[in-house]
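Sequence in, structure out.
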Amino acid sequence: MADDRPVPLDEYPVHQVPLSMKHVATGDRNAYDRCIFHVLDHEGRFLLILGLGVYPNTGVIDAYATLRTGETLHAVRASDALGDDRMRLAVGPLRITVDEPLKRLRLTCDPDGTDSLSYDLTWNADFPAVWEPHHIQRRGDRLTLEGRRYVQAGGVQGVIRAGGEEITLAPGEWTGTRDRSWGVRPIPGEEGGRAAAEHRTEGFHWIWAPVRFDDRFVMVIAQEDADGHRSLNEALLVRNGVRDVQLGWPHADIHYRSGTRHPERAAIHLTDPSRKPLELGVEVLTSSPLAIGAGYPPADDWQHGTWRGRGWTDRRAYDLSDPTAHPLAGYGVTDHAARFTLDGRIGYGIFEHGSFGRHDPSGFTGFDSVAP
């Protein structure tokens, strides 16, 4: 019999529906609530990606961290049964502590006595968190994704250890971005049924770019279908104490490595409120496919929200020197640490990109189509 007693969060006046905070308002098995952090140095030597998620209707909490250094990707993943204390953001060796909401968080991964990944970091916000557009996707008549998100940029200090190396994060030499989202998002294990059979995806093209400059934060989002139809769009400039500035309808010219869809550089064309053209330049420094180690589809060894039993922890290192060793990675989203330029300024952040299937504006004709 289920334990239906109140949980600690019920003490606070934060309820949105007449339910315990233990429950979400939807019965959809794909209900989720999770976060992702990116920590990158400005030379392109390291890219740390970490996150934590809860899946109330499957009773799962899980977390992950990956560190790209050279051609090695160090990964730690953990999963467990979801408990009643939703303010305890911890699973296995991975933990997120909210020291001051929207301003300061501590990110830790405990060592295990080997050379595997561990860290102890403090993430400090430099700019206020801002909402991303309300994200909705349907397959046929079925609502498959509805997410509410905010994004934020800041600085990070602390120590990362992996492979016998200790990396000290010096002030001014590292950037941190983060994204918080919740709602409904597909997790593995659901039968697709008629919607999947009759509404197959022809193509998907995605750009998500949070960029931190010294005095401003820029957020760009673009999601397009196979024919180039824009289903999600954002271009926003954020500064402390100033109203957010909309930067028009972003268009990206992406230069891909020949024979791939791996971006090497890009120009994102924006427009300020006076209709002056602005160009956000992108130079990729290093890359980490989210389907390797981080649990995003189409990962073939572990994906978010899947039940692995109680107390599951996995540590491993992946060799990224041979792209053919990870054939599914190209059909998922990749996060690229990048150097950005805008109106004479230099900034750093993430150029998250996924392009698979047909995309008419890019000249891609199908899932096997690549750049010349």
